[in-house]
# Entry
Amino acid sequence: MTTVHPAPTMHLAVDDQPETKLVEQARAGDEAAFEELMRRYKRPVLNFVYRLLSNADEADDVAQEVFVRVYQNLRDYSPRKRFSTWLFALARNAAIDRLRWRKRHPTTPLDSAPDPAAPTGVSDEVNAHEIGTRVAAAVGSLPEDQRTALVLAEYQGLSYAEIAAIMQCSEKSVESRLYRAKQTLRDKLRNLLN
Amino acid sequence: MREPDEQLHALLKKWGEIELKANFESNVLRRIRFAQDGQAERVGLPQLLRHWLRQPAVAVAVVMVASATIGSSVGILSARGTATIAPSELQFLGSGTLAGGYVRASTGGER
# Structure
């Protein structure tokens, strides 16, 4: 069972210089350097994937797979890009792979997600966990590109430029996806937004 | 510019993070080893040859076969060379003898 905690503001606060060195060492086959990179990024990657998949167990599995792919493809990484950009692009692809796999292997969920637009009753009775579940359902209902942009902006605290680099699109496109995502969320979560 | 929407932002933050499992890193490293072992099993011909040549008995056998092949090839080539110069060197053999008849037959009756 995975514990859910309130989300702190998360930034990719990594010192670029040592990171560049770490990446170089990891590319040269230094396993300790790879493990240090994994220590730095495992939490952001896990939670990024979790918010794309809305399933903690699958997120754990996919996040592990992301680091296996990082290890196997470090030679393809170009130092001209930020490491975090490359890493989040890999994580996004792994999450998309899992979403496609889900489509090919549909299963009945054990507990269905609540309708985010459903009336919440007396607001005082709605506890934080339930609100979180409704937010998760609303975010989970967004198309993948809007969801990715929203998660990177709102939960990972990335700039439009960084999101555009990860999603391989223009900053304008990121802005447009975020606008549409927020419009949808405002509509679906209107009961929780007073 | 990012549209300020503090209310929505605050609401989104109510969806909490999940905690990492204690064995996350060890699981990743195990999967990497597993993938490497899988790759080792899918070796190509060069890797297979390199592996087998590291076995002493196979290496000795390969050297012996190679030596025998090279030796017999050189032998055949040098035998051909000898045969081409044989007629001129064996012309002293009398035409009435068996050896002389063979030389005459093999050179097309030049003498």
In short: Chain A touches chain B through 48 residues (CB under 8 Å). The first helix of chain A runs from residue 16 to 27. The first strand of chain A starts at residue 4 and ends at 5.
